[in-house]
Every structure is written in C-alpha cells, then in structure tokens.
Amino acid sequence: MKKAFIIPALLAAVLAPAQSIKFEFSNVRFRTGSAVIDPATYPALDSLAQFLSASGAKVEIAGHTDNVGNASANRQLSQRRAGSVKSFLTARHRIPAGQVEARGYGHTVPKAENFTAEGRAENRRVEVTVLSQIRAARVSFVQGNAFVRKRGVSRWEPVELGRVLTVMDELATDSTGRLEITFDNGGKLKMRPRSDLVVTRMALEEGGREAGTDIGLKLGRISAKIAKLQMRKERFSAATPAAVAGIRGTEFTLESRPDQASLLSVWEDEVLFRGNSEGSMDKPVAAGLGCLCLPGRMPEPPVALPKPPMPKKPAANDTLFYNPDRPKPFTFSWESLPGVRARLVVARDADLNDLVAELVTADQAHQIPAQKADRLYWQLNAVDSTGFEGQPWPLRSVEIRRKLDGPRLNIILPRPGQKIGRREVLVRGETDPKSAVTINGQEAWPDADGFFSQTATLSPGENVLTVVSRDRADNTTTSMVNAICQTARRFWVGPGLGALKLVGGKWDMSTIGPSGSIRFLTNLNDRLSLGGQTGFAQVGCKQDPAFEPRGGEYQTTLLSGSFLARACPWPDLNFAPYVAVFAGAVSWTNQMDTLTINTDFGTPAASQDDLSPHAGLILGARYRANETIQIFIEASGGYLSTKKYNAGHYDANNLTASLQTGVMFGF
Fold first, then answer.
1. Which of 35, 176, 251, 285 has the most CB atoms within 10 Å of its CB?
2. Strand locations in 384-417, DSSP E?
3. May I ask the CATH architecture of the domain 135-304?
4. Helices (H), 517-557
5. How many CA atoms lie within 13 A of 418 on its CB side?
6. Model pTM?
7. What confidence category does residue 606 fall into, taking pLDDT thresholds of 50, 70 and 90?
8. CA–CA separation, 634 vs 496, rounded Å?
9. What CATH fold (topology level) applies to the domain 18-130?
10. Contact 213, 201 (CB under 8 A)
11. pLDDT-derived band of residue 359, with 50, 70 and 90 as boundaries?
C-alpha cells in the first residue's frame, strides 16, 4: 500500500487560467496512416487518464501532422487520431466525454519547419491543452539545471520561470539545480540540488471531492514555509519511502535520503509525523525539534535541533567593498558549537533563491569570490551529526560597494625628520575604519574610528617608516616618514656650579655659599641612568649679637661623594624633565679663622668636623643641545645625619638645599 505525507495544502491552490497549461503527449504512437493506437502507447494513455481523474480538468486532445500529402486527408487523419485517444480515455478509464474534446488540426499549426525530416517528425504530435481552471502552482525561481515532465506522458524538458505545475508533474534537479514553487496563499517550497519530487494530486473541492494536493519526495531535500490553511477540510499529502507527515501551516525542512530514511526538522508550529509501518500513529513534532524515520519503522522520539552558529563577520547591515581590478574574496565567519556543522547560504535576494554559495562545513569561516551585486544576503543554521537542521539565524544583509581609491591615511607621529633618542618609536595615525594597517610589515590594528598606534624598531641613523593601509576592497595607500634615531650616548660626564645652604638647625645660622660638582652617568636605557657625583661647597654663618657675635668668622667646608640614579620619562623631548635620587656621605669641617673661640659659653675647640651620611632627591630638566652636549638645571634637597655643630659654634643642621646648573658631555 502506498504511503503519503499528509501535509494539508502545502502547495495550496493556484487557479491556472484556461489555455495556460499545454503539454505534448510525446509517448502516443499510431500505426502508419491509421488512427489505430499502438498498444505500446497504452501505459502513457493510462497516465493521461490518471491526470484527468486526479485534476478534474477539461482538456483538448489536439492532433497535428506534417505537410506531406493532401491537406484535407491530413486534417481528417489528425481528427480521427484525436478521437481515438478520447475514446480510449472514456471507454477504458470512464473519463466523462464532456471532459475531453478531440480536434484535428492537420498541418495548420506547425511546431517546426517542414523542410527537414527532423522538423516534420516534430510536427507529427498530439498535444493536451487544459481548458478549465484547475489547481496549480508556479515555478517562481529556477537556477542551474532543473527539469520537468508530465510523468508517463511527456519527455523531460528544462524548467522555465513561471511554469505552471499541475498533477503528475515531476521535477528533478541535478547538482547545480534549485527551484522555488510559490502557492496562492504565499507559501513557498524550495527544491535543493539532487532532488526529485512528483505532484500526484492537486484538486479543488468540488461535489464530494476533497480539496488538497499530494506530492511525493522521492529523493533529496525540500524546505517550505507555509501559511496557515484557510479551508478546514483541505489536505495535502506527500509520499516518501519512509514516513507520513501533516501540517496546517509551518516552516520546516524534509529530506529523503538514498537509504530511504526521512528527516524532518520543524522550525515553526507543529507537524504530524508517522511511519509507513502498519499501525503507525501520527506523532506531533513541535517547533525546535527534529524526527528521524527509517523505512518500515515508526518515527524515533523527537530530539532538539542544534542551535545556530553565531555570525561574526560581516556584521549586520555592514558594507563590503570590492575593486574590479584587484578582486579580493569576501570572508564570512561565525562561531559554532562543538560537534555541530554550519550551513552557510549566501544569495543575491532576500528569499535566498539566487544563490552565490551554499555549503555545510565544520570550519568557522568561508570565502567567496568578490561579487558585483548591490547587496548580499546570508544566513546560518546548524546541522548536527544526524542531519537535523536547526532554525536559522535571522537573515543578514551586507551592502556591496565598488571602490577604486585607496583609504585615507594620516601619520600623526613621528613628525617627518624627527630626531628620536631611543631605538623604539611609537607610530600613531588614522585611516578609514576597518582598514588593515602595517608599519614596516608589522600589523597595527585600528580602532573603530580608524586610529592606530604601534611601536616600531629603529636603526641608528636615518630610518624610513613605511605605513600601508589596505581597505576591504584591497585598495592600498602608502605613506613614508623619515625618522632619525639618535640614541643617547652611553656615558656622560660634566661639571656643575651653584649654591648650597645648610638648613634644619634650631637657630638657622647658615648662610648660602658656592658649590660645585662633577657628575658621571651611565645610560642603562633611554630613560634610566646610574652613576655618581662628587661635590664641594663652602658656607658661612650669620653674625648675631646675642648668639653669634663672631659668626662671621665661621666657615663650613663640605666635600661630598654619592651614588646617583636618574630617570627621564620623556627622553625624546629636546627639553625634558627628570628626577634623581642620591645617597652617599659628606665630610665637613666647621672652623674659625682664629685658634680659640671666647664666648660666654666657654672655650670650645677651634673647629668641629664629621663624616655624615647624606641622601636626597633631585628635580631637574635638561636641554639637548646636540647629540653630545646637554645643559641641565636642577634643585635638590638632602638629609645630613649629624648632631654636631656645623654652622657657628652651636647650630647643628640636618638638611641641605642646593640649586645648580651645568653641562654634560656624552661619549
């Protein structure tokens, strides 16, 4: 017993106007010069009767001849042959006589030229024309190799756009073929490559006859989006080798495999599904579920459909560019769950009919050749290991623009001819958003506004930095900037002169005195230097009638030595600030010009001295006059660890404050 998918009104009703459906009855043959039907033709006539019975169509059987012989005789022969076909249908298959008209046209309606044997053979034919309105569907899109025939009646021929499909039409696609069938309620059915589908019944409700459509999916894959049915008694059935399904409006895919297994994936609403085994019952398959049915078995329990991959690039409503002179492939990328493949569909139309690419892959990206269309549409859904297809991600579109000019490119830093005091330089600039930038071959990644920054390595002397910006159409803009690498000298040495004062004592008796130093530094890198310095200073003491009546006779001499660490945050600047710390010791002597000190406090020693630890902080700035000369100015403060008098005969100071300037020579 033949089983069928019960999918009510999947193809819906299309009322084909009279005279719009015509097909050649290519399988009928007669004995030479006779109207007697060749018995070998009977199976084809049986198929024609099946078409008439299933559709209820009123038809004209038209006989045609070539132009050989008498015109009147040819007309009479063609009339008798058409009448023989009508008699066969009415007598053997009980087709009502009023449903069939027989007419002979002789050679008056040729299909080809009668000058050649091939043309005359083509003109000797029988045509069937539908005279009444019947239920039908139309081919709304066709791509690649797709073929149609009236099963058992006519030969295979290419499917033409707008072709009206009726009962017993069989459609087949090869590896390149795709077509779309549209129904009067807006529903659409798509046949994929390597598919074979037969329309076995399409009928309107008339008398006691039930309205509905039957199709048979022999092999391949279809996807359909069907509107809710309006007629309660309307039904649709589609036969496959394994199962039976029923819907009243849904979106789904159905696949019939070479091993006769059937896979149903439901994306919206619900589908009833049953196997072709005895006693099999309808099993509801809800949206988001899939069901497998093997031949001779009941459907397996529904399983969840895989989640769609997450699209990454291009973004929704993005723009892709192409240069026809240098076409660059378009890249589509996504993120799939482990163990799930992605089905990528790229088309030129929103219905995903005019395909550019369709594939199932385990990869996370795919490239297609650059397209000249104004817009592309792409969609992703998931395919699991069984073959179930999850509901697609919402359709995305991208605008395609032709672009011949290179992207905008502006280099902000370094400035042309700028002198760089280290081996690395930060290159900053801006370009068109989503362009790719390289600096001397090293990638730099612009942000969403097109700004980029990247460190480049310099060689001593003059350098050429080559910055290239490449847009998505593969157009390039190149900018070159010269930069001079003047790395800091390894060693620096130089004198400094200034003034120093001892502070922090109880009586603040110290006066400002001259100071001098010799400093040497070793550069560890562009910013940090280590070294040491030695210094000399001589300060006096204030004269106070109450405390230091002879203060002017005192003099303190300081000899210092310390380690020094200096940091310069912005070494590339010609005038750059720096900070330094030092630690060491000061040998100092506080003495009078005479041998004794006569005061009311007694007679202390003529001098006091000490070797005191000394540490402090320096804040300064240096000006780079050229590659080997730097001028500096700085202020410093330090702590002097002592309890002895170092200003006058009883003022002990623990702090030093100095200001000096000097020059450093590099080598």
1. 285
2. 396-402, 409-413
3. Sandwich (2.60)
4. none
5. 19
6. 0.54
7. low
8. 10
9. 60s Ribosomal Protein L30; Chain: A; (3.30.1330)
10. yes
11. very high
